[in-house]
Amino acid sequence: PQGLRTGSSVYEVTARSKAGLDPSGKVREKKLRGEAVAVDLPGGRTLFALLKTVNPMREDLALMSMAALDPAFKNDWVESAARIAGGDGIQSPAEVAPADYPLLVTFADIANSKSLERIDPANLVAAFDMGVKLNRITVEVTEHSITTGVSKRLVWLSDGGLTLDPDAGPTVTPTLAQTIRQRDFSTEISR
């Protein structure tokens, strides 16, 4: 209702084969570096698209990006990364399928990491004002450096905790804050 809001983040994906002990003699390895996307919404709230997805088959933004950018993607990270790096048959920019969306969250109180709330991408109205909806999520290839700065918004992010509820003990019914790692917001947290 108060106009289009957008957010972006540059992250880096690398993939390679290396020597391994499995029967093929090599192991595929992928690495994701970067930070969550933050979108400022009316009412002073912020929507975060984390570095992890809701799709267990595409667990993070590396696999989400490969699936969106590379029509030939068949879960071979190394081949897909080579095609994307070479621009071979890729679509950039590309729209992300809703099933591959990143995990979307917000905070009831951004100063309190334990106040984390999961957001349904099909129903942003439930968490935000009337008329707020998600139009689309896109990815594209770029030569820009990875984005940094989310720790300025989330000052508790570098407190050394593993999850967003560092005081929690073992439990069979963890809260959302106990299941989300600080590295789901940024891989650039200095330890």
Explain briefly what this protein structure is.
With 191 residues, the protein is an alpha+beta fold. Helix content is 14%, strand content 22%. The chain is built from 4 helices and 8 strands; from the N terminus they run ββββααββββαα.
Q: What secondary-structure arrangement, pairings included, does this model have?
A:
Layout: E1 12-19, E2 26-33, E3 37-40, E4 46-53, H1 61-69, H2 77-86, E5 94-95, E6 102-107, E7 116-119, E8 138-139, H3 150-153, H4 176-179
Antiparallel strand pairs: 1-2, 3-4, 4-6, 5-8, 6-7
Mean pLDDT: 90
Largest sheet: 4 strands, antiparallel
Distance from first to last alpha carbon: 41 Å
pLDDT < 50 runs, ≥5 residues? none
The count of strands amounts to 8
Strand order of the largest sheet: 3-4-6-7
The percent range for helix content is 10-25%
Radius of gyration: 18 Å
Percentage of residues in strands = 15-25%
- Helix/strand order, N-terminal first: EEEEHHEEEEHH
Q: How many helices does DSSP assign? A: 4
Global outline? globular
The class by helix and strand makeup works out as: alpha+beta
